[in-house]
């Protein structure tokens, strides 16, 4: 330790000498300037400023989990971390902050002071009364049905009508804004014709509605298709307005 | 369906009866349906005139009377249903009730007014909770050696036993007098029973007796199809992910595994060797015909056209063809192809065709057809039979309301189907008729649909 301090002192003396020489000779850019190498015994380099880095792994944790801090400094004589206190110049420490924290490291040395920062984010679970985060938002049932409206089909057809195509864009926009929503698309037919054929037709209807949403940007993984054929009816009278009610692709929240 | 080489009886008496059957089916195809012709069982040839005596009670057990009544009425109905007999009215029978060959004076039965060609008689008793029944079939025109058939039955004393004994004896009689065609009195019919909002799979005897549930799944189950050996029942059932093929073992009396696939899977059909199942599956998007093994493995796609493909049925004779319904040209039409998907042939020329069933001899298809289907069109959905080779058809039901799901009997001479007089799905009931459209009668009340006749 003594030797080191002696060295530092010697270095300082030499540095002071050099500075004074520089002051005397001025800062002229001269090839004939004093060559330090020519000045007798080799002088020590000037005291360098400290360097410091601090990292945390991981950078974000859930409440109750811990983080490993890892810091490295050079040319520092004392190193402190706020909230922890004096620490070794290089080291690691495990911490478990209860809230998101800035770990502020100060490294002091003969060359000056350097600071380093790392922020550890702590995810604190929200209280049950708190509103859910946006990406879990299923929206209300009413809003869903207002924006994602059932589509209706002509008899024995599973082609989307023009109005259904428009409705699909609106539905897709709503679903894109509510990425947590998963949808069941039910395919339905009126009660005329064969039960078996109508199940296949209902499948095609639900698939047509699904394809329209997928083409409008809704991931297929969020859409589930079930054909009910003519096994579930919305309306049981035998007339065209009722049959029309039954020829549909119905959208429901897949809960 | 008619094996002409088997005529175990004296030819002079029965060849004409074969003609009846030939006319019934061959005649159906040979005549031009489009000209409005309707086949008749009586066209030029008479049925066998048969006298069916009530059996003689053979014991004093108090149960005898009730069970014997079941037996007598079942036997009578089986022979009447067979479609090859002209049954002598009971008021024209001789007074005496013979119970054994020694007690019958056959000449009495051959003479007017009975004028029977054949006589069925026997005795029926209950002893120690067992039914003992001896049944005889006598040829009234062969006075020297009149006995054609003698059978003895011994079963538990239950009403169902009495009925099953009658079915078995009737099948023996029909087998001998129809030129070798197997009777159907022991065959079963599987169907869908409406139970509130659910539909379960039920089973009954061919004559509508003994109706009872097989499944209790509490959901909508459709399209029951019995395996050729009567061991398993395939159907389609609504679960969380839509309709899937399900399998019920009649041997184990419980559900057995059938692998689920993506999409809607419905309308299964057994290959005649019982090793393959064809059905409609939308696992690849569009509903297509697929064939897999009987547990859902080794599946392969057969069709690939845009539009619904459903309701396949194997040619039960060859196993190498499939008839099915396709919506590739919009309204569903009847098609036939080879099981590898080649040789696709359209059979119907318009309208709305559904629910094919292939005749046991491989020559005919029966299906439901609404030839004037469309918005506002007054067309009715009726049962038709088409001869595959010529595509000529006859209409079997007329003005009786909506008809669907025809299914051939094992002997190819009957067709069971669903009918709703006012078209409402909840009013569907199961009817049966001869394959020429005659002798229609109900097997169930309202709330029964999608009948499927066993293969034997």
TrEMBL record, chain A:
GO terms for biological process: cell division. It is found in: Cell outer membrane. Residues 140-255 form the OmpA-like domain. Pfam families: OmpA. It comes from the Bacteria. SUPFAM superfamilies: OmpA-like (SSF103088). Its main location: membrane. Keywords: Cell outer membrane, Lipoprotein, Membrane, Palmitate, Signal. One of its GO terms (cellular component) is cell outer membrane. The keyword Membrane applies. The keyword Acyltransferase does not apply. Gene3D superfamilies: OmpA-like domain. PROSITE patterns: OMPA_2. Transmembrane segments: none annotated. InterPro entries: Bact_OuterMem_StrucFunc (IPR050330), OMP_bac (IPR006664), OmpA-like (IPR006665), OmpA-like_sf (IPR036737), Pal (IPR039001). Belongs to the Pal lipoprotein family. PANTHER family: LIPOPROTEIN YIAD-RELATED, STATOR ELEMENT OF FLAGELLAR MOTOR COMPLEX. This is Peptidoglycan-associated protein. It comes from Tunturiibacter lichenicola. The lineage of its organism: Bacteria, Pseudomonadati, Acidobacteriota, Terriglobia, Terriglobales. The gene is pal.
Automatic annotation (TrEMBL), chain B:
Residues 1-33 form the signal peptide. Pfam families: PD40, TolB_N. GO terms for cellular component: periplasmic space. Residues 43-140 form the TolB N-terminal domain. One of its GO terms (biological process) is protein transport. It comes from the Bacteria. Keywords: Signal. Belongs to the TolB family. This is TolB protein. It comes from Tunturiibacter lichenicola.
């Amino acid at each position: 330790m003594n030797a080191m301090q002696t060295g530092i002192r010697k270095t300082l003396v030499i540095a002071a000498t050099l500075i004074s020489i520089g002051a005397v000779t001025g800062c002229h850019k001269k090839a004939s300037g004093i060559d330090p190498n020519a000045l007798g015994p080799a002088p020590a380099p000037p005291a360098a400023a400290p360097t410091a880095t601090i990292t945390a792994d991981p950078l974000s944790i859930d409440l109750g989990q811990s983080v490993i801090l890892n810091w490295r400094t050079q040319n520092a004589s004392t190193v402190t971390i706020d909230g922890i206190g004096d620490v070794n110049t290089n080291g690691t420490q495990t911490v478990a902050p209860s809230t998101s924290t800035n770990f502020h490291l100060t490294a002091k040395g003969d060359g000056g002071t350097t600071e380093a920062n790392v922020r550890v984010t702590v995810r604190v679970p929200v209280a049950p009364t708190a509103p859910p985060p946006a990406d879990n938002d299923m929206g209300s049932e009413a809003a869903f049905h207002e924006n994602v409206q059932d589509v209706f089909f002509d008899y024995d057809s599973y082609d989307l009508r023009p109005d259904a195509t428009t409705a699909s864009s609106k539905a897709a926009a709503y679903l894109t804004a509510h990425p947590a929503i998963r949808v069941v698309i039910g395919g339905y037919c009126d009660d005329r014709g064969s039960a078996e054929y109508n199940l296949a037709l209902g499948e095609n209807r639900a698939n047509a509605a699904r394809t329209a949403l997928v083409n409008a940007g809704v991931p297929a993984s969020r859409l589930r298709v079930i054909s009910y054929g003519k096994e579930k009816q919305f309306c049981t009278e035998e007339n065209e307005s009722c049959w029309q009610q039954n020829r549909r692709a119905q959208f429901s929240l897949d809960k | 369906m008619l094996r002409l080489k088997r005529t175990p009886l004296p030819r002079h008496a029965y060849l004409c009866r074969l003609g009846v059957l030939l006319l019934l089916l061959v005649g159906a195809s040979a005549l031009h349906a489009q000209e409005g012709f309707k086949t008749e069982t009586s066209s030029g040839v008479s049925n066998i005139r048969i006298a069916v005596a009530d059996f003689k009670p053979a014991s004093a057990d108090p149960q005898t009377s009730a069970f014997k009544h079941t037996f007598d009425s079942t036997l009578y109905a089986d022979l009447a249903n067979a479609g090859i007999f002209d049954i002598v009215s009971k008021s024209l029978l001789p007074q005496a009730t013979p119970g054994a060959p020694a007690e019958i004076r056959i000449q009495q039965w051959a003479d007017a007014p009975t004028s029977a060609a054949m006589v069925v008689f026997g005795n029926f008793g209950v002893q120690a909770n067992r039914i003992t029944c001896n049944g005889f079939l006598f040829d009234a025109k062969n006075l020297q050696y009149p006995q054609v058939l003698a059978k003895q039955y011994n079963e538990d004393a239950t009403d169902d036993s009495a009925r099953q004994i009658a079915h078995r004896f009737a099948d023996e009689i029909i087998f001998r007098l129809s030129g070798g065609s197997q009777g159907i009195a022991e065959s079963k019919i599987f169907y869908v029973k409406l139970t509130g909002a659910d539909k379960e799979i039920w089973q009954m005897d061919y004559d509508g007796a003994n109706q009872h549930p097989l499944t209790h799944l509490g959901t909508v189950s459709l399209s029951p199809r019995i395996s050729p050996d009567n061991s398993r029942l395939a159907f389609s059932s609504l679960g969380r992910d839509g309709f899937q093929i399900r399998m019920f073992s009649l041997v184990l009396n419980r559900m057995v595994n059938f692998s689920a696939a993506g999409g809607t899977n419905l309308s299964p059909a057994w290959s005649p060797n019982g090793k393959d199942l064809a059905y409609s599956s939308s696992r690849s998007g569009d509903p297509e015909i697929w064939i897999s093994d009987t547990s859902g493995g080794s599946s392969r796609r057969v069709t690939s056209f845009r539009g619904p493909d459903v309701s396949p049925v194997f040619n039960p004779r060859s196993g190498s063809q499939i008839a099915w319904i396709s919506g590739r040209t919009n309204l569903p039409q009847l098609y036939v192809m080879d099981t590898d998907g080649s040789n696709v042939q359209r059979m119907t020329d318009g309208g709305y065709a559904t629910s094919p069933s292939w005749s046991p001899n491989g020559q005919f298809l029966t299906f439901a057809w609404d030839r004037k289907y469309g918005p506002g069109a007054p067309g009715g959905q009726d049962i038709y039979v088409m001869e595959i080779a010529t595509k000529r058809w006859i209409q079997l039901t007329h003005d009786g309301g909506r008809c669907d799901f025809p299914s051939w009997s094992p002997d190819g001479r009957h067709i069971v189907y669903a009918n709703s007089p006012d078209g409402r799905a909840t009013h569907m009931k199961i009817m049966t008729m001869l394959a020429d459209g005659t002798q229609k009668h109900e097997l169930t009340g309202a709330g029964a649909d999608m009948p499927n006749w066993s293969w034997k």
